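Quick one:
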Amino acid sequence: MTRLSIYTLCAGLLLAGCAVEVQNLQPAKELAQRSKPPGSVYTGWRIFQDRCAACHGQAATGTNGAPDLLPRVRNMGSRRFIGLVLKRYDWNLAPSPLSSAPAEREALIDLLEQRKDIYSLTMPVWQGEPRVSAHIVDLYAFLSARAEGTQGPGRPAQ
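Output:
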């Protein structure tokens, strides 16, 4: 074997070893990404401040009229959270009959405008509210970060 052949063989083995290392790191990266919920904590915080904080408090720790969400979300998966917020918040209630989207939207607007009586009402179904529906994964990311203690009560970094 010539020196050139030996160098070529060594270079080939070295490159092959690097390729195996890169491939082995990919599952670890995917696993690390799965451990935190998808979505933007910052965007979820903005949606929460806009739509939820009036009842549940700015830090999601509850008020006299609405419960602390942190212990509830801590033991809740994303699918259950999405179902509860968008469809109905209490699993013990019977499903409500489907109504038209404009009627649901009008009822939601009425609810949000009646801030003085908000604590005497039950939590609305948010499925007809486009901002909440579009950012429900972000809302879960914010509340689960608060529940796990990785996000404090203030504004998260963007």
